[in-house]
Design a protein that fits this description.
Layout: H1 3-18, H2 25-35, E1 43-47, H3 53-62, E2 67-72, E3 83-87, E4 100-105, H4 115-136, E5 137-148, H5 153-163, E6 164-170, E7 181-189
Parallel strand pairs: 1-2, 1-4, 2-3, 4-5
Antiparallel strand pairs: 5-7, 6-7
Helix pairs in contact: 2-3, 4-5
The structure holds S-adenosylmethionine.
Amino acid sequence: MRPEDAKRDHYRKMAKRAGYVSRAAFKIIELNKKYGIFKTGQRVLDLGASPGGWSQVVSKLVGPEGEVYAVDKRPLKIELENVKFLQIDILNDRIDLSNFDVVISDLAPNVSGVWEHDQYVQIQLAKRALEIAESTLRRGGNFVCKIFDGEGVNDIVNRARKEFGFVKLTKPKASRKESSELYLVCKNYLRGSS
Ligand SMILES: C[S@@+](CC[C@H](N)C(=O)[O-])C[C@H]1O[C@@H](n2cnc3c(N)ncnc32)[C@H](O)[C@@H]1O
């Protein structure tokens, strides 16, 4: 087995054992350990949430006094008391919510195999996620966003640098080495209401 296949298999088994519906859960766990993104009692918006691994992790981190709004065009595979699900297409539908402490986005297109096309669509999703964060975050809030490396990344990073006190582009260990997926971690939103 190739080392990358072994790694994927390892995370899949770990996810099954821990009861997570996706391997992606380990990416947000790792990012939170390194960058301290979540606190108990927070209100979190999870964009591209299905099947629900990130929502499962965040639901525990914010605890019963916190709440998670999970958004996706496909249904979730989990039901949790402090997670509310909205089935919408973020490129076409409005999100009439606000006052979030954290916005996270793992939005990704169905991969077509044509790299330029997939990367272009993913950048559109990441841009929309940043716009949603700008209009729904509280002052001091945090934003985490998946980005496929390539054209358009610098524009998003530069825009984020004007709006957050801390911005870092990073690749978690749980992310496949050969994939071009990166995560933008932004902390301390400088606008928004307190
Ligand atoms: C990599 S998956 C997310 C995995 C999730 N974070 C987890 O832990 O289970 C990406 C998700 O983005 C969603 N997505 C892609 N485009 C979307 C759109 N325009 N509106 C809403 N959801 C979208 C897909 O349906 C898919 O479920």
